[in-house]
Amino acid sequence: MMKLHAAPLTALSFSCLFVLLLSILTVGFDDRLQADDPPLSLLKTALQQEQKPEEMKSLRVRAGAPFKIALFADLHFGENAWTDWGPQQDVNSVKVMSSVLDDESPDFVIYLGDVITANNIPIANASLYWDEAISPTRARGIPWASIFGNHDDAPFEWPLAWFSSPGIPPIHCPAPNASSCSGERYCSFGGTRRIELMKKEIENNLLTLSKTGPKDLWPSISNYVLQLSSSDDPESPVLFMYFFDSGGGSYPEVISNAQAEWFQHVSEEINPDSRY
Ligand SMILES: *[C@@H]1O[C@H](CO)[C@@H](O)[C@H](O)[C@H]1NC(C)=O
Ligand SMILES: *[C@@H]1O[C@H](CO)[C@@H](O)[C@H](O)[C@H]1NC(C)=O
To answer: Is pLDDT at 18 greater than 70 in this prediction?
Structure first.
């Protein structure tokens, strides 16, 4: 489910992702992100902190231009990594995203989940694929945010194709300690968890506005709010973007009561009487 009032580009799948962009002042999108105010590094520092609505810094719009948001959903990087087809799709996806970004010059990009196909990725560091998926946006200096779909930290599934002539590949235990790996089932390959994916994205990138979400909602991770502010006043919101982790992979496919309560609590605090 998704509500979005200001996206010229939509390549969406509604399968497992929720972005709820709550309402907008009619005049809110006359503007464009300002390149120099506030500096994105400061913005990022502020946004990294535990989310306290009253301290929430924001994206800004610039007078006289529309604020454009590009959505990239279901990119599925790392799919069929053992064939030529899979890696070629990733190359193609980078090309398509690059063209879209060059043609549309969006102010903000949202990676709407299923960025990678973790159940196809047999390496421990799936952030390498995640990184490839966000690279076109980063290369153009555009800020972005990401949330999870149900494939982003799904456990690896051995492809049937591997059980033919080349033989069966070895199973690697995630922890090298023999004692912690007493039975074969403990040695199945779990891949990179959503918390690790998100932490790596945040640590390695100045332009990301993604958050790991309130700890009391973990292991549901990508639950956070971003504010888009007016050009005149950085405190004055024109749009709130609520991001939800709808689960899947290492976590059940749910929006939990706890997430719903979090949403209610935060929205009452930052947007009392639904003014925006
Ligand atoms: C995993 O990938 C990320 C993103 O490319 C990189 O920054 C990080 O250093 C990698 N970690 C390891 C252990 O290779
Ligand atoms: C594995 O062993 C090393 C040293 O023997 C230890 O420091 C580490 O905490 C162990 N890891 C786990 C997951 O048990």
So the answer is: no
